[in-house]
Write a structure and sequence with these properties.
By secondary structure, this protein is an alpha/beta fold. It has a single domain, classed as 3-Layer(aba) Sandwich (Rossmann fold), CATH 3.40.50.1820. The chain has a nine-stranded mixed sheet, sandwiched between helices. It is globular, with a radius of gyration of 18 Å.
Length: about 290
């Protein structure tokens, strides 16, 4: 996924564990900070205007890819070719009239007082290293920007593997989860062989333990904290069959949780306005942040 287009900016000096930083004005006409945490590229978009109630809500996005890495090409190898990888999570321009991006959603969130950010962890598929980097990012930005300690998670496709694993370990740091076409089962995508590689484990060993890292199998703590979830999916998604999304909803509800599932008839997996530009996702985040 591509980076935001931005104007050149000066870069602050790094001091010990302090992230390097640059203030950038880009696609949304608001300030964007680019920085590094443990050598991982990260970013934060500041709201266009503050929330009317003075709160500090924020959207923690996954996955985030900030373009080709200058020294570590493996960070963004685009290993898995499917349409979600071809646009930008944060902005980007559609390649065809049929394509869409997250820009409309994020623009409205920024206008409503949300910070929006994330960290690049490569094709982690939710592995422990990526989860650890998410936690470091969370701690840094909550402190640095004085944000609400409960984040609104926004995930797309395999970003669900990353965020659901982080959320399962840190449920008290999550306000809600909004997901667009989420990957909820490693066996379906990227498949067991590729997932085992991402986790650095032999296939047989990984197969024995993968459910410990599988979103659909790790819902109890999220339901126990009454974390609301909203999934938007396409009924014709061949990559992520609808029946698996229904099964996850039913499991979460059986655990006492609230998972709303919006399935769009005839819509496949991809960069489609029917999925990415459905403003019910915006309304969900506004509701959970107490701004509606």
């Amino acid at each position: 996924m591509a980076a935001l287009q931005h104007a050149p900016a000066s870069r602050a000096e790094s001091n010990g564990d302090t992230p390097t930083s640059a203030a950038l004005v880009g696609t949304f006409g608001t300030e964007r900070d680019d920085f590094e945490i443990d050598g991982r590229r990260a970013m934060m978009l500041k709201p266009i205007r503050e929330a009317p109630d003075g709160s500090r809500p924020w959207i923690f996005c996954a996955p985030v890819f900030m373009g080709p890495h200058p020294t570590q090409p493996e960070v963004n190898p685009n290993l898995f070719e499917h349409p979600v990888d071809e646009g930008s999570l944060i902005a980007g321009r559609p390649k065809t009239p049929e394509e869409a991006t997250h820009r409309k959603l994020l623009q409205k969130l920024l206008e409503s007082g949300f910070h929006v950010g994330g960290i690049e962890v490569g094709e982690s598929m939710g592995n422990p290293e990526g989860v650890e980097q998410y936690e470091k990012y969370y701690r840094e930005v909550v402190r640095r920007y004085d944000l609400n300690p409960k984040a609104c998670l926004y995930v797309t496709s395999r970003g669900a593997l990353m965020h659901y694993n982080w959320a399962a370990q840190h449920p008290d740091q999550v306000l809600c989860i909004g997901a667009n076409q989420p990957v909820i089962d490693l066996a379906l995508f990227p498949g067991m062989e590729e997932a085992a590689k991402a986790y650095g484990m032999p296939l047989e060993e990984f197969t024995a333990v993968y459910r410990e890292h599988n979103p659909i199998d790790n819902l109890a703590l999220l339901a126990g904290r009454s974390i609301p979830i909203f999934h938007i999916v396409g009924e014709a998604d061949a990559l992520l069959p609808l029946e698996h999304q229904i099964e996850m909803r039913d499991r979460y509800v059986a655990l006492g949780g609230d998972l709303r599932l919006l399935a769009k008839p005839g819509i496949p997996h991809g960069l489609l306005p029917e999925l990415l530009e459905d403003m019910r996702m915006y309304e969900f985040f506004m509701e959970q942040a107490g701004l509606q």
